[in-house]
Amino acid sequence: MNGISFDYITEYLNTLIEEDDEGILEMEQYANENNVPIVQKEVANLLKLMITIQKPMRILELGTAIGYSSILMSRSSKFVKEIVTIERNENMAEIARNNMSKFDENKIISIIEGDCLKVLEKLEDKYDMIFIDAGKGHYNEFFPHCLRLLKDSGVIISDNVLFRGMVANNDLLIRRKITIVKRMRTYLMNISKDKNLITTVLPVGDGVAITARRN
Ligand SMILES: C[S@@+](CC[C@H](N)C(=O)[O-])C[C@H]1O[C@@H](n2cnc3c(N)ncnc32)[C@H](O)[C@@H]1O
């Protein structure tokens, strides 16, 4: 058990997801071999579904790593016209740029190198979808900016919100993760209780929250 779902459920659900995109498979293999954290298979599938339903033209991503999720999103729908992704690790950004030159056929992804919070403070254009997948301890600081940069009809997707189950169950809590877990609990409380927002938290992957403005 990964702290979130029974292994047999996760394993079974993963048998239903078939990925035949060679580029995506190549990046998955690289990530596995080099211990690069990328979205889990079922979260990747959820992103594709959300993009298919929402048809976002402009996507903002926090946390590029090797560019796996941004490339996956760029290939999910012909409606996606621009993806901006933020990464503070120089080496990751370099690998991501190489992957983008190989796999971002329509050249719609651009990387901004820097710390998410500093970059977010400077951004002004609005996005249809924002994917938060960086700095688990800082979602509370990122979120007000994400909301400011979100179009009225937009969606914010936050990954790792259950953090191996620790956010929901103290028995799973590792001492050195207490601060991150406390902050994540505050984050989930805030986005769930805000009367202007509607949020659902899904026990998928490491936990995914999907948030939109109420209309
Ligand atoms: C989980 S990985 C992103 C995975 C990527 N979204 C994917 O699925 O392919 C998180 C990345 O965020 C970066 N990161 C963490 N904190 C950050 C911050 N405050 N600002 C910018 N990047 C950050 C890390 O260097 C790491 O590469």
TrEMBL record:
Pfam families: Methyltransf_3 (PF01596). S-adenosyl-L-methionine binds at V39, S69, E87, D133. Keywords: Magnesium, Metal-binding, Methyltransferase, S-adenosyl-L-methionine, Transferase, tRNA processing. This is tRNA 5-hydroxyuridine methyltransferase. PANTHER family: CAFFEOYL-COA O-METHYLTRANSFERASE 3-RELATED, O-METHYLTRANSFERASE-RELATED. It catalyses: 5-hydroxyuridine(34) in tRNA + S-adenosyl-L-methionine = 5-methoxyuridine(34) in tRNA + S-adenosyl-L-homocysteine + H(+). GO terms for molecular function: magnesium ion binding; O-methyltransferase activity; S-adenosylmethionine-dependent methyltransferase activity; tRNA (uridine) methyltransferase activity. Catalyzes the methylation of 5-hydroxyuridine (ho5U) to form 5-methoxyuridine (mo5U) at position 34 in tRNAs. It comes from the Bacteria. InterPro entries: Cation-dep_OMT (IPR050362), SAM-dependent_MTases_sf (IPR029063), SAM_O-MeTrfase (IPR002935), TrmR_methyltr (IPR043675).
